[in-house]
Each structure stands twice: as structure tokens, then as C-alpha cells.
DNA sequence: GGTGCCGGGGC
DNA sequence: GCCCCGGCACC
């Protein structure tokens, strides 16, 4: 997905969450050949928060005038804000016709990183860009990372890539061949997409002094004992601003014209305890009030600056 | 927009 | 190690 399109969709969903307190569901159809950015078709529907927070099924599909109204609004938005790659798909692809995801509320509440981290480290290198990532991520710009959590019942598997979680589901839950990505078109992948705040998590590890809650999720490479034994202590009882991506992936691949439907649900879940850690101030220390060489001597007397200032390092002459 | 300085790279 | 600089956060 083009970053601009992704941004538009996120903003629209965010607005809907604010305005009507309902979750936003947006669906992508893309070719399994990896050309999702070019072949994306999108539809957006709303589902009610009163339904099971993690279950996506026909019964939770939008009903009534409200949903229809939003659908119309969003349709207009898409047609006006995109270059035509987006359109409404009125087929039943917006609502999975396959069985409900095999998860439970209990499962969703007790979110812990799988103790098996083999696949995590294995998938790190291929984890980078799924659908929403910038082609060229900027350094230090955003420490959020997307993780994927298996939603099958009693499975807490968390992997760093969608392909990894799909492979996990295919092999572990569907009992299929682990060596290939072959799909017979009747696979249901239920897994959640979770944003991980690497900064907060890292800081949370060094200091567990709680301040205000923020949203994080498991990192890809941290040792699992933290999440197995300590995670409950880090969980917030209420996570009012918890942001959780839930991705339900259905593969309907026909022999001639394979179409793959990915359903993504972005929602704010008031009661979902998704490994919530306190937020901490930026590790970057605040700027001191002391004048540094640059201000004291000015650019014209740069030769009088301390070495560090000349090298754009922390001033050694006028320390805070 | 100016400043401080981290992170990274060239030599 | 020295030096430079892109880029970011802070002011």
C-alpha cells in the first residue's frame, strides 16, 4: 500500500473511532505475488465495539443506517483522495464467509509473548515491510514495530512477520506443509497485528517506575521470560488508548485468478490488556540553559569553539 | 528558524 | 583518533 493511501485510511478510521466510538474495518485485496501496493482494492465497513473485540464474523458486520452511512462517506473519500486504485468491493469479501477465528476473549486478555522465540529471531530479517511500512524507513523517526500474534485458541505465538505467522498457522494449526507457501485456497489465517513501541519497551525494561500508560507490545528479540513471568505486572488494568491492529487473513486462491483477501481491523479496545507498559520520557536529555560555544563565540569565531562543538558533539567547555 | 548533539561515515 | 555532517529534537 502506498504510504499516502495507508495514511488516509488510518486517518479515516481514527476519525470514525473518535466521532462514533466505533471500530473501523478496512479490507485490502491484493495479489499474493507481492504487488499489494499496486493492486490494492479497499473497502471499509464498520463494526460495533459491542461485538466480540477480537472476533470477525458475519454477525459482527455493520448493520443499520449508521454503517451504511459511513460506508457511503468513506466511499466518497476514497474516490476523491486516491488515484483510483481504491474502490468499494461489494462482494462478500468484506465479511469473511469462513468460520470465526478460533480465539476467545480470555485469549485476547492474556496476551503474552510466546516462549518460543526461534521463529521470532528467524523472522527478524524478513519482518521489515509488510503493507504499511515506508519503503525507506527513516532512522530514529519512529520506533514502532509491527508484530503479529496468532489468534488461534490457546496459542500465544507472536512473530514479527505476516509471512511468519501465516507459516506458523499453516503448519501448526492447519497441519500443512511447512516448507512451502503453497495454498490450496481454503486457508484461514487469524492473527493480530500489534504495534510495538520499541522505545517505551526498552525504557520500561531499564526502569519499571510507572507513570502514564502507553501502548506497547512484545519486541521481536527480547527474551521471553520477561513476558512470561513479568508481563502481568506490567499490564495496565485499563488501557484507554490501547491501539491494536487485528488482521484476519483469508486466502481464497483459485487456480486461474487467485485473489487474496486480507482483513484488517483497527480499533481502540478499552478493556484489552495488550501488554501495556508505562511511558517514559525521551531518553534524549533536555537541552540545558547554558550557552555553548556556538552561541558564546558565534559562527565567525568557530576556531575558538571547543573541539566537541566544532565536531557537533556535546559541548565539553560549557557543560550543563 | 536557530541550536545542540547523536549517529554515522570518511580518512 | 580526528574530522565532518545529516538529521533530529529541543528551544
UniProtKB/TrEMBL annotation:
Superkingdom assignment: Eukaryota
Ranges of Low complexity composition bias in the record: 83-92
Keywords tagged on the record: DNA-binding, Metal-binding, Nucleus, Signal, Transcription, Transcription regulation, Zinc, Zinc-finger
Signal peptide interval: 1-21
One Gene Ontology term from the biological process aspect of the record: regulation of transcription by RNA polymerase II
Compositional bias ranges of the Polar residues kind: 93-116
MF annotations from Gene Ontology: DNA-binding transcription factor activity; RNA polymerase II cis-regulatory region sequence-specific DNA binding; zinc ion binding
Location within or outside the cell: Nucleus
Listed transmembrane segments: none
Main location: nucleus
Region annotation (Disordered) ranges: 83-116
GO cellular component, one term: nucleus
Protein's name according to its UniProt entry: Si:rp71-79p20.2
Source organism of this protein record: Neogobius melanostomus (round goby)
Amino acid at each position: 500500500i502506498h504510504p499516502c493511501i495507508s495514511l488516509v485510511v488510518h486517518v479515516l478510521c481514527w476519525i470514525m473511532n473518535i466521532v462514533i466510538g466505533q471500530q473501523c474495518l478496512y479490507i485490502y485485496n491484493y495479489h499474493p505475488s507481492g504487488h499489494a501496493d499496486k493492486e490494492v482494492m479497499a473497502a471499509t465497513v464498520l463494526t460495533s465495539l459491542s461485538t466480540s473485540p477480537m472476533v470477525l464474523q458475519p454477525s459482527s458486520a455493520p448493520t443499520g443506517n449508521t454503517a451504511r452511512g459511513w460506508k457511503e462517506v468513506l466511499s466518497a473519500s476514497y474516490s476523491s483522495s486516491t488515484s483510483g486504485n481504491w474502490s468499494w468491493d461489494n462482494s462478500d469479501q468484506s465479511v469473511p464467509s469462513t468460520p470465526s477465528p478460533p480465539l476467545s476473549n480470555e485469549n485476547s486478555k492474556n496476551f503474552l509473548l510466546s516462549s518460543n522465540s526461534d521463529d521470532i529471531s528467524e523472522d527478524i530479517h524478513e519482518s521489515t515491510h509488510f503493507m504499511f511500512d515506508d519503503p525507506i524507513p527513516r532512522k530514529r523517526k519512529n520506533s514502532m514495530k509491527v508484530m503479529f500474534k496468532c489468534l488461534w485458541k490457546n496459542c500465544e505465538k507472536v512473530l514479527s512477520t505476516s509471512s511468519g505467522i501465516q507459516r506458523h498457522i499453516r503448519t501448526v494449526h492447519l497441519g500443512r506443509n511447512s516448507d512451502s507457501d503453497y495454498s490450496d485456497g481454503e486457508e484461514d489465517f487469524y492473527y493480530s497485528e500489534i504495534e510495538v513501541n520499541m522505545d517505551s519497551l526498552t525504557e520500561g525494561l531499564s526502569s519499571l517506575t510507572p507513570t502514564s500508560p502507553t501502548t506497547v507490545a512484545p519486541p521481536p528479540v527480547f527474551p521471553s521470560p520477561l513476558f512470561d513471568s513479568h508481563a502481568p505486572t506490567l499490564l495496565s488494568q485499563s488501557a484507554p488508548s490501547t491501539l491494536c491492529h487485528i488482521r484476519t487473513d483469508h486466502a481464497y486462491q483459485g487456480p486461474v485468478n487467485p485473489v487474496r483477501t486480507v482483513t484488517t481491523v483497527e480499533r481502540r479496545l478499552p478493556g484489552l490488556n495488550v501488554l501495556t507498559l508505562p511511558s517514559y520520557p525521551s531518553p534524549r536529555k533536555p537541552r540545558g540553559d547554558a550557552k555553548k560555544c556556538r552561541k558564546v563565540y558565534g559562527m565567525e569565531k568557530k576556531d575558538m569553539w571547543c573541539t566537541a562543538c566544532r565536531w557537533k558533539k556535546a559541548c565539553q567547555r560549557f557543560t550543563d
